[in-house]
Each structure stands twice: as structure tokens, then as C-alpha cells.
Amino acid sequence: MAQPIKRVENYTKPALVMIFVNLLWLFGVLLAVWGLPAVVLAGWILNHAITRLERRFRAQGRYP
């Protein structure tokens, strides 16, 4: 007999915290190996990619 579908926990906050932790150590490694220009460049590229995704989602009507 099939089990009824239950509500699942919302893992949005833990996922966002882990993204922050991963970005923090990644930027730390970039800073240690190649210096501040590499961190700034990586941040700029990441910002550009997020902006492109936002524009695409807005054009498709999938963004509030």
C-alpha cells in the first residue's frame, strides 16, 4: 500500500549558508594564490552570470 505524501523540510537557508561558506573558502584560496585582482575578477564574473540568469528568467516569466 502506498504511503501518503508528507511535507518535506525547507532546506533553503542551509543551502544558502553552504553556498556562502563555499564562496568564502574559494575566494580565500584565490586571494592566497593569485591575489586580490583574481578575487575581484571572479566576483565580477559570478555577478555577471547571476544577472544573465535573472534576465532569462524574467523574459520567460518564471521570476516574480
Summarize the structure.
The chain has 64 residues and is mainly α.
Q: Could you explain how this protein is built, in words?
A:
By secondary structure, this protein is mainly alpha-helical. Helix content is 75%, strand content 0%. The chain contains two helices and no strands. α1 (12-34) runs antiparallel to α2 (36-60). The chain is flat and about 60 Å long. The model has no long low-confidence stretch (mean pLDDT 93).
Keywords:
0% strand; 64 residues; mainly alpha
Give the SSE map.
Blueprint: H1 12-34, H2 36-60
Mean pLDDT: 93
Broad shape: flat
N-end to C-end Cα span: 39 Å
Distinct helical segment count: 2
Structural class: mainly alpha
Outline the biggest β-sheet: none
Q: Would you identify the regions where 5 or more consecutive residues have pLDDT less than 50?
A: none
Order of helices and strands: HH
How helical, in percent, are the residues? over 70%
**In angstroms, what is the radius of gyration?**
18 Å
Number of strands: 0
Residues in β-strands, percent: under 5%
